Every structure is written in C-alpha cells, then in structure tokens.
Fold:
Amino acid sequence: MKKLIALVAVAGLAMAACTDEEPVEEPEPEFETSIVDGPQTLDSSGGLTNLQPAVFGDVQTVDEDTISVEFEMLSPECYGYEPVIQESEDDVAVAIQIGLLEGKTEEDCEYDLNNWIAEIDLENPIGDRDLKAAEELEPTEAP
Structure:
C-alpha cells in the first residue's frame, strides 16, 4: 500500500512538472471600492427615485429617543436614503430604503459601495421595546 501511495505521489509531481502553462492572473475588478475607517454618518435625503430596500446590519440605541442603523449604499453624490420606522407598544421595526437623488441616473454614478450610519429620531422613547428589522418593503417611488 505504501508503494502505491508513493507511486501516485511521484506520478502527480511528474505531471505537474511537465506543464508549460504560466500561472493564470486574476482579472482586476471592474468597480472601485473605497476603504474608510468604519462607517460614516449620513443625513437622510428627500426626493429619491427608484427606492429599494437597503442591506443593513447593526441597529443600536443611541439614547432613549434615537437609534443608529448601519447600512450599505453607493456614493452619496448619486444616492440617498430614507428611513422607514414602524413603532408599536412592543417594538420598533426599522428599514432603510435607498434610491437615486433627483436628477441623477445610474449612468451618472460610479460603483463605490460603502457602509453608512443613519441616526434616526423616534416618535416615542425606546423604553422596553425591542428593535427589529421591518418586514421586507416593496420598492416604491418617493412622493
């Protein structure tokens, strides 16, 4: 059995040595990303078009009346966000919608995905209510 394993290993090395192929280089990505030291705080926008649900992560309580939500969005030169908050006696449901700023088209914008933080004021103090993600929202047009 040891001879068989050694024979297979030698054959594998011999086959690898016989190839004249050069290592294949990975293609460069077609988009540009920015690296920042953590997410940056961003103010909400109005007059957005083509609203879509944003991918978001961390939701935290800043104080009794304010929460912060970390989310992904392309460049704020072309895109903005609107928070969607649904408050009840038991919980606060959070969603973020992103869309194009008024007068911008996707062709005007560079692909520059970053994490952002939105600080959102609640109508009522958080108290003992739970923070949770709102049910997935349907894409809408801003009024």
The chain has one domain: 32-133.
